[in-house]
Structure to design on (253 residues):
C-alpha cells in the first residue's frame, strides 16, 4: 500500500509545460468546421461543367448543330407560303458567334388574280373581257449567314437571344390557269408557266431555348430585301420584299 501511494505522488508531480507546444491537430472551431463540415464543389467547376468544358460545348469547344424547321413566308403583294426544311449551325469555340445555313421547300400555294382576254375577231363584242387567273406557286429558299448571340452563348443552357444577317437565293415557279371567259372567242397573254429568281439580303432577331446544351428550340423573324445588283451589274427584281417567320429544332453535337 505504501508503494502504491508513493507511485501516485510521483505521477502527480510530473506536469507538461505549456511551452512544449503539444496540441491536438485541428483544435480550433474553424479547423473542426473544415474537417467535419461537408465540402461544397467549387462554383468554377460547376460553371465549367454547365458550359460543357471538355465535352465539345463552350469553353473552347466548337459546336455543330443540325435540325429541322418550318417557315412562313409573306411576299409583298402575295399570299403567305408555308415551307419545311433543314438547318445547320457552326460555332467556333461555342461562344457568341456562329454561322448558319438553311434550306426550305415551300409547299404549293394558290393565288388568284385577274387579267384580260382579247377577242380574236374585231366583230366580237365586247372586244375584251376580264378573266380569272389562278396561280399555283411552289419554290425554295437557301440562306447562309452569321449569328451574334446577345444573351448567353451558343453552348449555354436556357434562354438565349440573337441577331442574324444572311444572304441567299429564292426561286419560285407559278403554274397559271385562266377561267371565266369563252376560250373559242377570246385569248389571253398570260403565260401557262412563269418563274422568278431573287437574291435576298436579310436579317432579324431570334429567340432560342436550350435544354442540356443539346436540344435547341428557336423562333425568329426576318425581313428580306431583294438585291438589284450582282457583281456590279443591274438585275431585274423579280421577287419583292418579304417577311419570314421561322420555327425550328436543332441538335448540337
Amino acid at each position: 500500500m505504501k508503494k502504491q501511494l508513493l507511485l501516485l505522488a510521483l505521477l502527480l508531480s510530473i506536469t507538461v509545460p505549456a511551452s512544449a507546444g503539444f496540441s491536438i491537430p485541428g483544435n480550433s472551431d474553424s479547423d473542426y468546421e473544415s474537417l467535419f463540415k461537408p465540402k461544397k464543389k467549387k462554383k468554377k467547376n460547376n460553371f465549367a461543367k454547365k458550359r460543357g468544358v471538355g465535352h465539345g460545348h463552350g469553353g473552347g469547344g466548337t459546336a455543330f448543330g443540325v435540325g429541322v424547321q418550318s417557315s412562313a413566308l409573306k411576299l409583298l403583294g402575295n399570299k403567305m407560303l408555308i415551307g419545311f426544311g433543314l438547318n445547320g449551325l457552326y460555332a467556333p469555340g461555342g461562344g457568341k458567334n456562329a454561322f448558319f445555313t438553311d434550306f426550305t421547300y415551300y409547299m404549293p400555294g394558290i393565288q388568284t388574280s385577274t387579267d384580260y382576254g382579247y377577242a380574236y375577231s374585231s366583230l366580237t363584242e365586247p372586244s375584251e373581257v376580264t378573266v380569272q387567273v389562278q396561280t399555283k406557286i411552289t419554290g425554295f429558299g437557301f440562306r447562309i449567314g452569321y449569328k451574334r448571340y446577345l444573351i448567353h452563348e451558343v453552348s449555354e443552357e436556357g434562354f438565349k437571344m440573337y441577331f442574324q444577317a444572311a444572304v441567299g437565293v429564292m426561286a419560285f415557279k407559278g403554274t397559271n390557269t385562266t377561267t371565266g371567259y369563252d376560250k373559242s372567242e377570246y385569248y389571253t397573254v398570260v403565260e401557262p408557266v412563269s418563274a422568278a429568281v431573287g437574291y435576298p439580303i436579310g436579317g432579324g432577331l431570334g429567340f432560342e431555348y436550350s435544354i442540356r446544351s443539346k436540344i435547341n428550340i428557336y423562333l425568329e423573324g426576318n425581313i428580306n430585301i431583294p438585291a438589284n445588283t450582282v457583281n456590279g451589274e443591274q438585275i431585274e427584281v423579280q421577287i419583292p420584299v418579304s417577311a419570314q417567320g421561322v420555327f425550328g429544332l436543332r441538335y448540337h453535337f
Observations:
- The mean pLDDT is 81.
